[in-house]
Amino acid sequence: MGFPNSKISILAVFLGLSILTLFPQELYHTAGVINVEVPVRVFDGDRFVDNLSINDFEVFEDGKPQKIVSLYLIRKTEVQKKEAAAAPKAEPAPKINFVPETSRNYLLIFELHDPMPKVDEALDYFFKEVFHKGDRVTVVSPKGTYKFKQETFDRVQSDEVARQLKKNLRKDILLGALDYKHIIQDIKDLENQDIDGDVKKQLILNDIRQLRDRLTVNDQGIRRLAQALKAQEGRKIIFLFYQKEEIVIPGSKYEPSDYEREARRPSEYNVKDIETIFADASLTVNFIFLTNSTTSTFDITDMQGSAEGRSLMDLSNSFYGAFREMSYASGGTTEASANALAAFKKTVRASENYYLLYYVPSQYKADGKFREIKVSVKGKNYRVSNRSGYIAN
Q1: Which domain covers residue 227, as residue numbers?
Q2: Would you say the pTM of this structure is higher than 0.85?
């Protein structure tokens, strides 16, 4: 199996990846014509709608209707159907010679503080039911990165790869959580110590700042993440498992305390920037928010005083908003669940089947501006998911 090639957590994914430039969205040139590629997923409830034709779709760029020139239906890595726009009556029917790229490059990111049996089951499911020959897989844990290419599976059975990976992931999660849990324990110990109130308050505030500053979300980090992912080959499919972070802090649950104000994690990002960067990055982000709170490791009743003197602080808010926007902009899904396996299965089902639409922009101009894309199905109230645009370079 692959071996860790760096000590990396999701903080390093955001802030430490070194990529030279942000490549613009791949545009396909055919006989001097620009074709924009749009992966599209259409759902009736949770069911993928697989019986649509090219004439069922409408594409709008910056609110203006566009001409769709071809459509492909992709299931996993296979082209199940291809269709070209009808030619004028006096011309022969068009032939489709273009073969879209359907190879898959998976990135599974785990930002967890507690090993979970359902996460192990999700990995088993991935290697048994999702992974296909030719896929590339990268797994990012709180302490390492594991890369798998086809040569790995030529030497080792996929169930053995899963077994070793689960073992390493559990170890990495426990190691990565040590600092976090030490800070939580220190807050708990300080609350129970008989020391000067002002001194105690400052020490607890320092601990809370450490928790707050462990991870941040900002435009620079988000841009680097998109750059790193876009540089990979094939269809980039990201599954991000992020565990909810809650801490119990001193203070009333009814009135914000100094502790609560200090614990609020800054969100140094712009929603529109996230939309632009990830929509243009040729990837799909699926965000799985695990609602199993880390407060399970910290019992409020162990602290002096009553529960009325404590408040529950959620440190996940800024991350949740950023990751949800990444998912939306890239045409992916967001799931919130305490069951990692169930949420993973649902996002996998949503990501494996899709249409590829190609259209020729009616007024294309390489001006470096963001073009918003909206796709709909004529006369139907289906849920349609697609990347929200591209940069015209």
Answers
A1: 112-136+154-351
A2: no
